[in-house]
Amino acid sequence: MTSTPSPVIHPAWLPAEAFRALGSRRVRVDTAGDAGLLVGTVLAEVSRACARFGGSVQPPEAPADLVLTLAPRSRGDAARHGGPRPDRDLDGFRIGRRGASTVVTGDGPAGLFYGLFEVVRRGEAAFDPGLADERHEPAFGLRVLDHWDNVFVHRVMGQVERGYAGGSLFWDDGRLRDDLTRVGDYARLLAASGINAVTVNNVNVHAGETHLLTDRLGEVATIASTLRPYGIRLHLSINFAAPVILGDLPTADPLDPDVRRWWSDTTERVFETIPDFGGYLVKADSEGRPGPFSYGRTHADGANMLADALAPYDAPVRWRAFVYNHRQDWRDRSTDRARAAYDHFAPLDGRFRDNVILQVKHGPMDFQTREPVSPVLLAMSDTRLAVELQVTQEYTGQQKHVCYLPPMWSSVLGFQPTGDDGPTLATRLSGGVLSAVANVGDDPFWTGHPLAQANLYAVGRLGWTPGRDPAEILDEWIGLTFPGTPRHLLHALMDDSWETYEQYTAPLGVGFMVRPGHHYGPDVDGYEYTPWGTYHFADRDGLGVDRTVATGTGYTAQYPRPWSERYEHPDTCPDELLLFFHHVPYTHVLHSGSTVIQHIYDTRFAGAQRVAEMQAAWAQAAELVDPAVHTRVTERLAEQRRSAEEWRDQLNTYFHRKSGIPDAKGRPIH
Ligand code: GCU
């Protein structure tokens, strides 16, 4: 009997070649006898690279081309903790030249290996005699990827909710995977990108998964030890109704003393089992999940109860602000889903404990291709806030389409709440949390589409330097992942891919128009008469959602000035968000000079055309990239093209029929 060989796992941004510059030199890891876990990781990385490329690991005091050392104040930390303490202070490092050596000085053991990966990223340039002294430290203390992985294969959502890269790395059909080698490799990739925490289960914690907190905690501990050598802390999504579901109590009322004791005791056991446990993530009173509303309590009551249970361990609860009415009547024009998070949470500002972090989706709706920044992130100055990005491309092509998302994320992180001269949102949130929904599965390329790895890589990098140019991050990723391939090839496919995706999908910020349920492909009216609150209101005269104070839902008032005013008026509202904020006639003239209807036609044609060009460019590159990557990307581009043309034709036909206005350029509309 013959068996199919397992596919080779793609090395992503850590191919062996990336270690050549370091591995062919004399390297000294000078940690004054510290034998902590993270220092061990650094030593193992260095030894492996030197063994491969002919360099040497130098004994103490011996001359070296690269010296990796710990800052004096942190010497001993590694040994004392016996595990990672990825606190903000200890993640930083310095890099520079001392005589003929490049020296990396970690603030702590984690800083040491973040510094090591900086050397890897720079390659030969790290050994340039002119290397400038630099200090690096992460802008966000907690840089966490939230996996929406289920333990049990869910009837509708499968093993990974909104996962487009195969099964879960952790769980397989109800069980912890026997072989966690890939989890270790994953931790290494994440650490090299700058991530320091992972939530291992879906925010929708179903009955079976609720047990991870108690009787299946041993499995969680096993994952935690696989992540630990790379400084990745483990977080768990918990079920607010756990005290009831696990059968112990008749209520989950957050003010009930027995419930509070249950959470304290349970949390104590979690920390006994996993001393460096990261914290809880909670989706409550959202899309049918249980929460404090069932007991007439507020979200502050709910979050604070968990915060109190976690406080003795100095750990946070991340409480999600994604709370809205998903059983809305579409006939009711006054309810606006975009308003919901602010309406629910802004009145609670100042009422959360210090270790509650309110985790807010970057936009007010739901990870659409284009949304304004959530006004919750611009309010609540007495609450710790975290921004939640979505790496998994639920509404942005599901890892079948090339869609490099960092330009979108940068527009969020670089948003200036008080206007054009003010500080950025990233500055306001700095020191806090950057979270992102993960896009990884057991696919040999990790992310299904090999080019979707760039999104994963970039989250970690933005967690350190949120103001960094996304094009520069992309360039860095290309250099590491595709050594030897001309970079312009990948840039040609990826630089504008978010705009391209936007061009052929829902126009001008109106959002959705996707097939209900799985959210892939066009269906203009798919959500129009549903309870989900995601409407475009197209009729024969125009389209868009009136969210103004003057005539609409009043949502614009949730923004501080000058944004409330800018968004309120169509003449100052940016084109790309026009239909998010306004219902306008098809003949409305945009700042670009085009009418709305002509813009719809032009950009749909342009977007689909652009995908055809991407496909042609990639076909030319067959000899220049790894054949397995070439084949996978070729397949995905064929699907992207089919899908882009379907989007183009459905949207153009739909709006042509609605408006009766022909395309000024007379192109085929069906
Ligand atoms: C979206 C997504 C769900 C997910 C939810 C969330 O609505 O479709 O699968 O559970 O977001 O973020 O909680």
Outline the structure in words.
By secondary structure, this protein is an alpha/beta fold. The protein has 3 domains: 121 residues, 2-Layer Sandwich (Chitobiase, domain 2); 340 residues, Alpha-Beta Barrel (TIM Barrel), CATH 3.20.20; 121 residues, Alpha-Beta Complex (Alpha-d-glucuronidase, C-terminal Domain), CATH 3.90.1330.10. The chain is 34% helix and 13% strand. It has 22 helices and 20 strands. The strands form 5 sheets. An 8-stranded parallel barrel has the order 7-12-13-14-15-16-17-18. Strands 2-1-3-5-4-6 form a 6-stranded mixed β-sheet, covered by helices on one side. Helix 6 packs across helix 15. The longest helix has 33 residues. The protein is globular. It starts with 19 loop residues before the first helix and ends in an 11-residue tail after the last helix. 52% of the residues are buried. About 2% of the residues have low confidence. It binds alpha-D-glucopyranuronic acid (GCU). This is Alpha-glucuronidase. It comes from Actinoplanes sichuanensis.
